[in-house]
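Hi R.,

Here's the chain you asked about this morning:
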Amino acid sequence: MNNILFRNVRVFDGKNIQEGTLDVLMSQGKVERMAPSLDACEDVRIVEGEGRLLAPAFIDLHTHLRDPGQVHREDIFSGSRAAAAGGFGVVVAMPNTAPPVDTEAAVAYVLQKGASAGGARVLPAGCVSKERKGEEMAELGGMAKAGAVFFTDDGSPVKGVRLLMNALLYARDLGVRVMEHPQDTDLSRDFQVHEGRCSALSGMRGYPAAAEVIGITRGIALVRETGCPLHLTHVSTAQGLAEIRLAKAEGLPVSCDVTPHHLVFSEEDVLASHLTASFKVSPPLRSTEDVDALWKGLFDGTVDAIATDHAPWHLDDKDLPFMEASFGIASLECAFGAVFSAWHSRGCPGSLESLLALWTSGPGSLLPSSEEYRGMLREGSPAYCTLIDENRENTVDIAAWKSKAGVTPYQGRAFRGWPVCTVVGGTLVHDAL
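And here is the predicted structure, written out as tokens:
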């Protein structure tokens, strides 16, 4: 049954929360009608909203699905369904797999497998360079034609500056953005934690804020030179965000995202955990001052999207002493609740509408213009939505996750505000009412 009627819901359309409550009818993959009261036909599935918030399905610009090649950690099927459980209708799969997604055929593989996964849509990102070596440009044109929605060597920055500049020029003509992982790898070599209190008290090698700032300013300089759009991912420092804010004020086409874990945790959590490896991530969890700056950036127009950087690992990779464990935090199924709860604990800075836009229309605006769904919920728009119960409180239990992730620092934490239904292309793919 592909006809769905949400009754008595408050509607966030991607920009604003509409007045009062509405009924929303979805039919044939589209939002057919929105009105205060709608009659239900016999072939309509009715979802009683009871005043809950209906929003566009979330869009995650940055997730690791480990497929191809590392499917014991995650695969496109498990990741797609985990995303749907977290309220996501679209996820962009990073290409740092084994082998990397750096050809037209590899992009087609991710797209085709994602189409039958039964959860969120999976859109592929393609590598900037062949085999992610940073030496020779990958076939960007072929990958764009096959359906790549970003180009990135994520997991590391694009090694060659000339290569990155040329990729920006090619990508602009293809209508697909380059996503850069901003990091000076020399300054951050062999890091384990944030350079600050955490490195000083643990004795571990630190990743200084300057290493991220250098990566960000390199990218901004190339945007200034070429006029081409660039997206900077998982920004984690106050100084890095300040550079992006200045670039935007200059009118440069620079965008950025921040992650839930950099909004929810800090280096103090790493120390309080006695260096538990579940908190090990790249870039590392930063100072409390950095976290405060990221929250400010969410509501002053500097940050364009919240992206999970979902990085699932098998227990063998993560349940280890801190220095031996892999980098990454899994979060698809609890990301919204974690951030929503942190927003409440901070006294609800900014508006709920602004916060929701960072999960929906904000990231949607960064996808290629050819993408039909861009994080809006209006009559005639594609039928992608998530029903949010702002008052529901759940405790994270990774054993119940659809993801294959074996470890997360969110385990056992209680959060308020959970997606309870997700519709993707007119199909109800998650129902936890």
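One quick note: The CA atoms of residues 47 and 70 lie 37 Å apart.

Cheers,
M.
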